Amino acid sequence: MISEKEYRKRKTRLGRKLKPFSVAVLFSAVQKTRSNDTEYPYRQNSNFYYMSGFKEDSAVLIFVKEAKNFKTYLFVAKKDKTQELWHGKRLGVDKAKELFDVDDIFEFDAFNEKFKKNVVGKHHIYYDFGLDYAKVKLLKRSTKNVLSYENIASYIETMRLIKSKSEIKLIKKAISITKKAHHKAMKRAKKSEYEYQLQADIEYVFRKNGAYSDAYTSIVACGNAANTLHYINNNKKLVQGELILIDAGCEYEYYASDITRTIPVNGGYTKAQTEVYEMVLHVQKEIIAMIKPNVFRSALQKKSEELLCQGMVSLGILNGDVKTLIKEKAHKKYYPHGIGHWMGLDVHDECPYKKLNGNEIPLKPGMVMTIEPGIYLDEEDENIPNKYRGIGIRIEDDILVTKEGCENLSSCIAKEIKEITRKSSSNL
Fold this sequence. Notes:
It is built from 13 helices and 19 strands. It has about 425 residues and is an alpha+beta fold.
């Protein structure tokens, strides 16, 4: 868990970055309708949660800064017995005051009045530029003599780049649960009939072990379905002799894991599948070995494209000079995505890759990113050898940048062919 002391440090860091005579506003996420009068399970806005630790909707966190000093105020939904009967208990103002370290807490209904009062004499307003129009209109209607409107999200998302020890601990916990889920899928593949059955096994393990939500919709793609990058139908029959690309990770206490393994339906890889798999695995290991402070993500991307292109030429998937093929982007047909992304409170953490001046941000200790090379060989592509058609392989791990280099946080999840086949043949 993240301590209130850590939340206080975050608020202090952000407050010091704000310009004198300013107000910063952070709104909670809103409930999202699934259809008609049913709603999706509530999930707090990641930036709001990062700064407050507050999990309820109908909440606002504001910073009010004078020349140097600043104060923080939290607005929360009031206690209402009728609403609580239908939607569950609320903390309310009094309980929130016991739990959250801010200068004062008010009912949500008081926000408009308090905001208008605090914005008097302020020259800079910070808010999330992704806000819906109604909230932006409300904020701007209440302000006068404003010199600038600034995107508070960019400040918070930069802070989120470097994970604390507590955050890393939660990510590791999420990965430890995801490990159990992937290993169960490896064991269950031979006895399962449909992709959705494996998905059910995976998500059962998530929930059984305290991860109450997925970090993203699980991908369980058998055979040629793996060549659709965002395949989430998960309704095909599992076919003997084919591979299953499983991209699945849980979220634990708001922190994500993101793991991909490509496993055989019947417990063993064919010669052609082995050749492609070992090539992708080699590339992933080479890229992970490059990770250390001050390396650029673009360098990892460039190297992954070179290595995958070389591998495809060696297998006869591509023909020609590697440098020429890369220049012509011929390899992008089979490797169209990036080598990885930031991960944390969101599976694709909304953290910047470049500074405001346009320069790329180098890797630093505490950053967490995925490394996920892949190759996608559609069954209808007549330009590649027949034996490779219909094979889609991605291997993805979650990597922590350290002072000395990096740590593969998900190295505990089987990915060597021998490991996977051993898991596949073990008793349930």
